[in-house]
Design goal:
The structure is a single chain. By secondary structure, this protein is mainly alpha-helical. It is 79% helix and 2% strand. It has ten helices and two strands. Strands 1-2 form a two-stranded antiparallel sheet. Strand 1 and strand 2 form a beta hairpin. The termini are far apart.
């Protein structure tokens, strides 16, 4: 790519394949970021930031075996960094994520919102492995490569995340059963 006076020429962007990559993968990246963050606006911000950085490094990223996996990892890193930055500057961060999302009138939307709230309660790395496993349907080896960790770490994070989700799911059921017995 040639740079002229600080800006890339549009022809060079089209020739590099970046425009085709964005056209093919932007929607998938936005969905992935939405599941990861639980916030539509934040997911758009994260994907926009990641794609702007990916554009600057596109010649190198395009040479990798799986550019989408590389950019997806950039989204995960940006999400983890965003949470770290927010913790430094915003007091009471956990309360923001623990507040329920607006209830949708349809049952399917309400269930989706409930699951996003449960995912939001997980630590960032546990949430990332859950999303990579169950949303992107990746095996442990690919998740480990994406997260730059061992497969055993992936399995332990998944186990811990599922245990936390299981506890959260069973507590309301136990309360409901107790209420029903007392009536």
């Amino acid at each position: 790519m040639q740079q002229i006076a600080g800006s890339w020429r549009l022809k060079d962007v089209a020739d590099s394949g970046f425009a085709a990559f964005v056209a093919d993968r932007q929607a998938a990246l936005l969905r992935f970021a939405m599941v990861l963050t639980g916030d539509a606006v934040l997911s758009q911000d994260i994907v926009a930031d990641v794609l702007s950085r990916a554009f600057e490094r596109w010649p190198r990223i395009a040479q990798t075996e799986q550019p989408y996996a590389y950019v997806r990892r950039m989204v995960i890193n940006e999400h983890v960094s965003w949470r770290r930055r927010l913790r430094r500057f915003a007091f009471g961060f956990d309360r923001e994520f623990s507040q329920p999302l607006a209830d949708d009138p349809a049952t399917t939307h309400a269930e989706r919102d409930a699951m996003l709230r449960r995912l939001a309660s997980l630590p960032p790395k546990q949430r990332a492995v859950i999303v990579l496993r169950f949303y992107d349907d990746l095996p442990d080896a690919e998740i480990a490569a994406a997260m730059h960790c061992a497969e055993s770490t992936v399995r332990s994070n998944i186990a811990r995340a599922l245990a936390a989700l299981r506890i959260e799911l069973t507590e309301p059921m136990a309360e409901q059963m107790t209420v029903n017995r007392n009536q």
